[in-house]
Amino acid sequence: MKRSGQRERSRTGALREYSADAARSGWRSLRLLFGGPARTRVILLLAGVLALNSADIATVGASATQLRIGLHISNTDIGLLVAATAAVAAVFSVPFGILVDRAHRVAVISITVATWGAVMLISAFSTSFSQLLTIRLVLGAMTAVSGPGVASLIGDYFPAGERGKIYGYVLAGELLGAGAGFVITGDVADISWRVAFALLAVPTVPLAWALGHLPEPARGGASQLLPGAERIVGHRELKLRERRRERGTGSGKDWNRPSTGSVQSLFSNEGGGNGKTQRSGAHNGHEPTDAQQLASQLGIEADPNAVLNTDPRTMGVFTMFRYVLSVRTNVFLIISGICSYFFLTGVETFGLEFVKGQYHMPQLLASLLMLIVGGGAMVGVLIGGRLGDNLVKRGRLNGRLIVAAVAAIITTVLFVPSFVTHSAFTALPYIIAAAFALTAQNPPIDAARLDIMPPLLWGRAEGVRSLLRTAAQALAPLAFGAISDAIGLRYTFAIMLIPFLASGVILLLALRSYPRDVATAALSADLEGRES
């Protein structure tokens, strides 16, 4: 017995050592991929915020069968649960966008994530459909911060030339969250949907804590993290350094700089005297994006009637709405996003149900199939942003929109065979390829939105987009549920491909207005920087 116990302890110790080595190796790989520990920390935390939201939607869909049985509801009611959350999130998007542009963004996000976890835990104890629906209305308000907060922080944490790539990394978290909702909590839901909902609240505790310890970046680019950055220098530390320099008491190492001199940003130079990391062509701390620099090189003129001549911080809500919606490319991107996310939300909510019914699979095999498809989506979201960034670097100003438009049209074509066949083996290659194209369009579009808006409007512009997109997105689960109750999920998914195809066509229309809107945003940011 004594020797047996020693062998067991030895195996346990070896397993722990192996797990620790694997964790260290994984962390080193992430640091290498993302460009250093500081960038890795920011990317993982922002990805975690989006992962929570998508995991919630996917968990409701994965728990659909158990919810119907436990609460005696229909597919329409399942759709209503997701739609109600999205509708409230739409209403709160603009207030959170205003808050993001004016307040401490990191604190706002960390507090809402903590509240989100508490509300999710409470929802696990719901005893009726009406009670669960009411709790999810509160949940929707908490998730509204994710869009404006993440967009604004990416703009200020990372250089313009790689925002598409960074968005790809962050949006990968959204897919991982959806995968966790489908596979992990979906399998748990087979036992109890209440346990699945409670399990989803667990990661909010460490995430909220870690977000709360993230330094708030300076607006305008002074805190941007170049590849190899050792740690994050927030706006408070930058102000302290500036005061010390004014007193002549310190120079300080720029920790946002790479630790070795071999890695330098294409646009970087030292701003003399103020201790801030600035970019060539930047005006008073505001860095032009890569697309804006290219528009200047190509001699594209701004629209003088659309240049923002007032301080964005003093704009009222209606004035802000009017300006954001006066940017033609932004309107195209919003409408396109409405069409594509309408379909995507339906997939997240009823995708598992569709796979189970269309290919006659049990819950476990359907979850595994969704996990494989998610792998294709993960590759797409990582590659799409890089493709858009590279096209801009090669002189194709419309590169980001071209990638997104082509991906949307290809997605529509690839999904068709999956609705015709009942063989999972036959449909799988098409579905994986469609998932790749489906997600490849999102990072370049998100990066393009930062190209056409002045920096001090990033949060509110994202709030307006989230309001309009999420309002339409909220109808998706309800529409999918109601139509599927009438004609079945197979024909419902086929019909809903029509608006997705429309999203690609709309992006093609945006190619004409995008260059001038980029030049206009650059001039607006120039004036914005001089006033600040």
Detailed description of the structure:
- The protein has 532 residues and is mostly helical.
- It has a single domain, classed as Up-down Bundle (Growth Hormone, Chain: A), CATH 1.20.1250.
- The chain is built from 21 helices and two strands.
- A two-stranded antiparallel ribbon has the order 1-2.
- A hairpin with a 6-residue loop joins strand 1 (268-270) and strand 2.
- Helix 2 runs parallel beside helix 8, helix 8 (163-189) runs antiparallel to helix 15 (363-393) and helix 16 (399-420) packs antiparallel against helix 18.
- Mean pLDDT is 79; it is low at 250-255 and 257-284.
Percent of residues in helices: over 70%
Radius of gyration: 24 Å
CATH architecture: Up-down Bundle
Number of helices: 21
- Tell me the name of the CATH class: Mainly Alpha
Count structural domains.
1
Strand order of the largest sheet: 1-2
Beta-strand content: under 5%
The low-pLDDT segments are 250-255, 257-284
Secondary structure tally: strands: 2
Find the CATH superfamily.
MFS general substrate transporter like domains
Q: Please, what is the average pLDDT?
A: 79
Please write the string of helix (H) and strand (E) elements: HHHHHHHHHHHEEHHHHHHHHHH
Instruction: Please outline the major beta sheet.
Output: 2 strands, antiparallel
Structural class given helices, strands, pairing? mainly alpha
Overall morphology:
globular
Q: What is the end-to-end distance?
A: 75 Å
Q: What is the CATH topology assignment? A: Growth Hormone, Chain: A
